[in-house]
Amino acid sequence: MTWLGLPAGDVFGVHNLPYGVFTVDDPGSTARLGARVGDLVLDLGAVERAGLVEAAGTLQCATLNPFLALGRPYWTAVRDRLTVLLTDEAYAEQVSPLLMPLAEVRPRLPLAVGDYVDFYSSIDHATNVGRLFRPDSPALPPNWRHLPIGYHGRAGTVVVSGTDVVRPSGQLRPGHAPSPVFGPSGRLDVEAEVGFVVGTASRLGTALSTADFADHVFGVVLVNDWSARDIQSWEYQPLGPFLGKSFATSVSAWVVPLDALAAARVPAPTQSPPVLPYLTETDRYSYDIRIEVVWNGTVVSRPPFAGMYWTPAQQLAHLTANGASVRPGDLYASGTVSGPQRGQVGSFLELTWGGAEPVTLADGRIRSFLEDGDTVTLTATAPGTGGTVVGLGEVVGRVVASA
Fold first, then answer.
1. What is the DSSP pairing of strand 298-301 with strand 290-295?
2. Which residues are known to be catalytic?
3. N or C: which end of the chain has fewer CB within 10 A?
4. Which of 287, 290, 270 is nearest to 380 (CA)?
5. From CA 18, how far away is CA 40, in angstroms rounded?
6. Which helix H or strand E contains 75, and what residues bound it?
7. Which one has a higher pLDDT value, 240 or 193?
């Protein structure tokens, strides 16, 4: 219970406490760290300056990166202390002035993202895409069940929820035209994903194991990895995604700590054939995260994260297997979350089967891919402790015409 008087069932209650960065509209306002609780934001820098929590001064920074670098003992201690401050009524008089309405702040990108890696970990998504892009070949490439396939993305175009997405232009080949042309993408798509935020760094030349996941990953965000399918399909062989994906990746504004998702852990799917030793897990688990995809106000899909073939711990082990290092604020994403049913897919490529089966939205408009002015919203929830529900926030993006 909290002295804040939050509504019963609030998905951003004290059991959650996600972290973010915000500004206010006051002249000269600078970015501050905050923790969301209900429809309020607790100014973490002010809490630390008041001597109510100790985090080596990192809560007074303009990004989460310095706090992430402190490591799990600090993450847990600060979270435990914030829980006390918000549940023990003895602190209400001191803490109340440090809270502000969520509606009065402007969320910012919570991280300085140094590196961004995107995986391809849903067997249902990979199978669907294989059938669409390579109809005359096996849906899954021969390596897919042996390693979590991924690509290194463009960190500089990771943007916070609410940022407009400019329709990308690039080289594409319409239909069976003999030569490519340059122009705006006509097959703009979404990819509903879950992102994992790295906290503590690893050493260059030293691989992490699957057992290192909880010590190096701080929390999760929702991700929309916008994709231009026509650009992608022309350029992706033989080296994979490039301009078809590097123009924008949207993330939610609030980073949910792994500690808040402890009750959402579920057994991960069985893998066959057995994986190599560096990818084995003593405690193999995923998270029961349930995503909802809304297209211009119409719920079109509910992708289930729990069924992802490759786990976030395996992804971390694989991306460092060659000795590559990770740093505080690095982000890696799960890849498109898709289940076995059409109403569980995380991309419109799958939802409309490559555009051949358009969907009718609630307002009567018919869509295959995104048109200018369309808005897509991703939301997600997960089970919390004691029967609560944890909210993962939202990722909102509106498509605007090419510049």
1. antiparallel
2. 125
3. C
4. 290
5. 12
6. helix 72-87
7. 193
